[in-house]
Amino acid sequence: MSTTDLTERRTMSDGRREEDRRMDRIERQMKEQASWLRSISETLNTLAVQEEKIRALSEEVARLRDQHHKELSTKINTIAEYQHTCPRAQIKWIWIFVAAPLWLMMIGAVWQIFTGIQT
């Protein structure tokens, strides 16, 4: 073998080694990218599950709110109907007859305190 042949073989061998190194580097990068893609895929799956749970909870909250609103409006209507049957005019007169003597008693008690203090 001539020195030229040996030099060519070394050059080819060096070129092949360089190519092998590049291929190894590319394979490592592809493995890293595959790992990143798996991680992204898992994150997206988690987000999809969480979004579904949030949607289901939002629907349940809306349903419960509507149910509570119906029950509350029924109770409010019952209270309003009961209040409409209340004899308001008669109650005004009852309060006058109850409140007036109470006020007179309080005024008399205050008067007694002041006149008792002065003597």
What topology does this entry show?
Layout: H1 3-84, H2 88-118
How would you portray this structure in words?
By secondary structure, this protein is mostly helical. The protein contains two helices and no strands. It has two domains: 3-86; 89-119. The longest helix is centred in the middle third of the chain and has 82 residues, at 3-84.
Question: Summarize this, please?
Answer:
The chain is an all-alpha fold and 119 residues long. Helices cover 95% and strands 0% of the residues. The protein is built from two helices and no strands.
Fraction of residues in H or I helices = over 70%
Shape: rod-shaped
SS strand fraction: under 5%
The number of helical elements comes to 2
Q: What value does the average pLDDT take?
A: 84
Descriptive labels:
119 residues; mainly alpha; 2 domains; 2 helices; 0% strand; rod-shaped
